[in-house]
Write a structure and sequence with these properties.
Blueprint lengths: L1 E7 L5 E7 L5 E5 L5 H11 L2 E6 L5 H4 L2 H8 L2 E4 L4 H5 L1 H7 L12 E2 L5 E4 L2 E7 L8 E5 L4 E5 L17 H12 L7 E4 L5 E2 H7 L1 H15 L1
Parallel strand pairs: 3-4, 4-5, 5-6, 10-11
Antiparallel strand pairs: 1-2, 2-3, 7-8, 8-9, 9-10, 11-12
The structure holds zinc ion (2 copies).
């Protein structure tokens, strides 16, 4: 498959992903968070035909360039409806960081658990993985054993849910139920930092290990 990662935004270095099918050259752009020029240049370099914009969650660093990318390519956007409130408050998120509010765009389609979007022979399965935000999703490509995880899981770390709608217990539960059950060789592409695998995180991620112990102590208390 085609999978280009474009780190965007000097402050956040968010990994925007361009996912595509090599045969049909059809592609989706996941999380265009900033620097639309960089993303569009990569689209041109790859020679892909973009079918739409997919959003893992509505934090500023993941949605800041949705409007520019949609307009430049004439495509529509998909997001979980549980992120609508957060999306409506992106200007406020920017204000908290002392940044200008980005121009916002309409979201035409919903992402839901079990939904499948197709790119040629590739399937993108939506997994609801709430916790980092109220309705974050991860995108699983079974043919490639690959997950684009947004901020649900980072290599050897997690992205603490600091904004309203996030919840640490929910986040850990989502990772355990939805991601750690995938084959251990499944590659995880986080929203920030380098990629990892399900097996490595199950073994080495300190948040998952510690939390596991705390959770089981509570269960038996
Ligand atoms: Zn986030
Ligand atoms: Zn992020």
């Amino acid at each position: 498959m085609i999978h280009a990662i474009v780190p965007v935004g000097s402050l956040f270095q968010q990994n925007c992903s361009i996912l595509g099918d090599e045969e049909t050259r059809e592609a989706f752009i996941v999380d265009p968070g900033a620097e639309p020029g960089l993303i569009l240049a990569k689209v041109e370099e790859l020679g892909v035909k973009v079918k739409g914009v997919l959003i893992t969650h509505a934090h500023l660093d993941h949605v800041g360039a949705v409007a520019e990318v949609k307009e430049a390519l004439g495509v529509e956007a998909w997001m979980h409806p549980g992120e609508a409130e957060l999306y409506a408050g992106v200007g406020r998120q920017a204000g908290l960081l002392g940044l200008p509010a980005p121009r916002m765009a309409a979201i035409e389609h919903e992402l839901r658990e079990g939904m499948v979007l197709k790119l040629g022979k590739l399937r993108l399965e939506m997994l609801e993985t709430p916790g980092h935000s109220s309705a974050s999703v991860s995108m699983f490509i079974p043919e490639e054993k690959r997950v684009v995880a947004g901020d649900t899981l980072l290599r050897r770390s997690i992205a603490r849910p600091v904004l309203p709608g996030g919840n640490l217990e929910t986040l850990i539960r989502s990772i355990r139920r939805k991601l750690l059950g995938l084959p251990p060789e499944t590659e995880i592409y986080p929203g920030h930092g380098p990629e990892t695998t399900v097996g490595e995180e199950a073994k080495w991620n300190p948040f998952l290990c510690q939390h596991g112990i705390v959770a089981s102590e509570r269960t038996f208390a």
